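STRUCTURE REQUEST FORM
Protein name: Putative phosphoinositide phosphatase SAC9-like
Source organism: Trifolium medium
Requested output: structure tokens
Priority: standard
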Amino acid sequence: LDSDEVYIIVSLCTRTDTQVLYVDPTTGILRYESKRGFDLFNSQKEAYEFVTNGSRSGCKSRILGRAILGYAALGNFAFLLIATRLIASIPNLPGGGCVYTVGESQWIKISLQNAQSQGKGEVKNILELTELDIDGKHYFCETRDITRPYPSRMPVNQPDPEFVWNAWFSKPFVNVGLPTHCVTLLQVL
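Status: completed
Returned output:
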């Protein structure tokens, strides 16, 4: 985009529509109102055309991800963690679905306009977070609860919190009413 606005365009395999989340440029809080034609569309193409006003050159960067692994606004930046490559570890679960291992991930660092001084400890913690080795060590299933013995009667968006690696990191999506947009990530032991 010509401005510094940041949008996250999401199409899930479990839905037939596309959502557009706006990143508040000051606080980093995700914004979503579930309004058709504003942040809810029939396709990625419609959503992208709305965000860019139909301009192909109006977008500064575009990063394609296979899954959202987490999001957090920390100090002067917001961080979006996405999986860019997935490995089908268990490709055909009984009754359908697939367990994926994160093959490659990417941290997307979004500058915020609220210049706040950060202590050395906070900066160190943020750096350590973004240096975590995710690739090949974390897995998820978009359609089944794999935090409990299989088959689980619990819905996929109510996992056993004891096994969820990214619970706090998925809260921003829960807060805007999109609890399944950030996958439930489990860590390989």
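Reviewer notes: The chain has one domain: 6-187. The longest helix spans residues 120-130.
Form closed.
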